[in-house]
Amino acid sequence: MTCPYCKEAARFVNYRTKTFTRLLGDLRFERAYYHCDQCGQGSFPWDQTLRLSPQPSGAAALRAL
Ligand SMILES: [Zn+2]
Question: How far apart are CA 10 and CA 40, in angstroms?
Answer without folding.
Answer: 9
